[in-house]
Amino acid sequence: MYQAPRGTQDILPADRPYWRYVTEEMHRVAALFGLQQIDTPIFEETGLYVRGVGEGTDIVDKEMYSFQDKGGADITLRPEWTAGVMRAYIEHGMHVLPQPVKLYSMGPIFRYERPQAGRFRQHHQFNVEMLGELDPAVDLEVMSVAWTLLGRLGYRGLNFQLNSTGCPKCRPAYRQALVEYFARYEDRLNDTDRRRLKINPLRLLDSKEEAAQPLLNDAPHSVDYLCAECASHLATLRGYLDALDMPHSINFRLVRGLDYYTKTVFEVWAEGIGAQAAVCGGGRYDRLIEELGGPPTPGIGFGMGIERVIASLKAQGVQPPPLPAPRVQVSPLGEAARAAGIKLARDLRDAGIGAVMAFGGRSLKSQLKSADKAGVRYALIIGESELAEGKVLAREMATSEQAPVPLDEIAAWLRGRLA
RNA sequence: GUGGCCAUAGCUCAAUAGGCAGAGCAUCUGGUUGUGGCCCAGAAGGUUGCGGGUUCAAGCCCCACUGGCCACCCCA
Fold first, then answer.
1. For chain A, how big is the Rg over CA atoms in Å?
2. Using the CA of A3, which nucleotide's C1' is the nearest one?
3. Nearest nucleotide to A200 by CA–C1' distance?
4. What is the pLDDT of residues A325-377, one digit of tens each?
5. How far, in Å, is the CA of A2 from the C1' of nucleotide B60?
6. Which of residues A196 and A285 earns the better pLDDT score?
7. Cα pseudo-dihedral A250, A254, A256, A259, rounded to 10
């Protein structure tokens, strides 16, 4: 038996109402903020991600689906949206557009990881980027997209985890302070954390190692080491958040795993998806476009995991609206009636009325059962006598009332009643 | 990549101490002519995830693989 590859899943019709509900709201909210949709290829040159996401990150070092195509090109399945969108910004000269350029995307992301609740090898992300403007009001705008969206979907108790990772000017001093602090307690760290201390000391902050916990509270906070520009950027952003009553907690342990972040970083956490609680994460990346060969251009964005959003909505008991269903079932009795029924179904669809056929020459009883299960409002019965009179018997399922209606009037008759 | 738990019908789960693989739901059919929901009856549905091993005998014990869940790593 074949099974879906590890960490992938089929999105079945039963789950579709959630997907439709969530993705339609994403399009709607994007429109409210003047975001324009962009799609980039599902694979890119491997080098783009190595350069954009950064060597030494987990994504690049061990999570990319990379291969050589038949022409020998090094290709990687999209492990995140940002690098590809930046590539498109540069390639299409979007710096000549009015800034900031506000973009959103939706689609699958691939990472070779060990699956667990809320984490898959293929998942889908809603992604937002605002490029070309350093104003903290843009940070607020980006966070507001996530805020508005989650609020409209029915989330309760939303709260941002917020931090600033500084910039190339102030980060070295902070990094140095961290190293000095933890070096004093090196004998109390285990091997994993000792390795972090050498390679990426910021990582120590979200260590879950037992031994490190007592040390973390007194560790230096990045916000205390920010340069004047970064400090004022954060203060201004917080002022905006307060003014809009958007709750946020400074989480000095929030450090993101992608190299390109500067200044603002944030996450939104939600319940009901296990240990992988981040439903949305993002931040500012003011060096990235330049790093990828474009003009110096600031940017900020976030990714939101659609599977996690849905899992969390389910946990909160949010019910999506039902999908549009067919309104009538055509139920022919006998071979002659069947030909008329097929034609009737076609005419109804041409008139914009959703119609399903009862197949297989089943008994009327069986056909009404299936009409009941399909949830149609009317069963349109065509038997010998109806056929002879050029009529159809329209049975309203909910009331069991039925009336003969001339075939050439049925579309109009239904349209009046289904409105 | 590391560790723990797990895998029986489409779904949720049973199966004594190793001794003939079952139920509910869902599906299909019927309960007298062309009338659904409730009820009743019946049918269909399984190489017990896959492959080996132990045994007279394996769903049950052992090994490997695949997949799932949980935690780590990390992230959405």
1. 28
2. B67
3. B74
4. 899 999 999 888 999 999 999 999 999 999 999 987 789 999 999 999 999 99
5. 26
6. A285
7. 80
Angle at CA of residue A28, ends A27 and A31, nearest 5°: 85
Q: What are the tens digits of pLDDT across the range A400-419?
A: 999 999 999 999 999 999 97
The gap between A8 CA and B50 C1' (Å) is 20
Q: Which positions 183-202 on chain A have a beta carbon less than 7 angstroms from any atom of strand B?
A: 192, 196
The CA distance from A292 to A89, in Å, is 11
Q: Determine if strand B comes within 7 Å of the CB of A366.
A: yes
Q: How far is the CA of A176 from the C1' of B26 (A)?
A: 63
**pLDDT tens-place string over residues A124-183:** 999 999 999 999 999 999 999 999 999 999 988 788 999 998 988 888 888 888 888 888
State whether the beta carbon of A20 lies below 7 angstroms from any atom of strand B.
Answer: no
Check whether residue A15 has its CB closer than 7 Å to nucleic acid strand B: no
CA of A2 to C1' of B50 (A): 11
Percent helix, percent strand, percent coil in chain A, to nearest 5: 45, 20, 35
Transcribe A288-329 into DSSP letters: HHHHTTS----EEEEEEEHHHHHHHHHHTTPPPPPPP--SEE
Whole-angstrom CA distances from A89 to A86, A198, A232, A405, A406 are 5, 35, 28, 59, 60
How many Cα atoms sit within 13 Å of A273 on the Cβ side? 22
Burial A190-200 (b: 16+ CB within 10 A, else e): eeebeebbeee
Structural contact between residues A220 and A178, judged by C-beta atoms closer than 8 angstroms: yes
In angstroms, the CA of A326 and the C1' of B38 are apart by 25
Write down the pTM of the prediction.
0.91
pLDDT at residue A159, as a whole number: 87
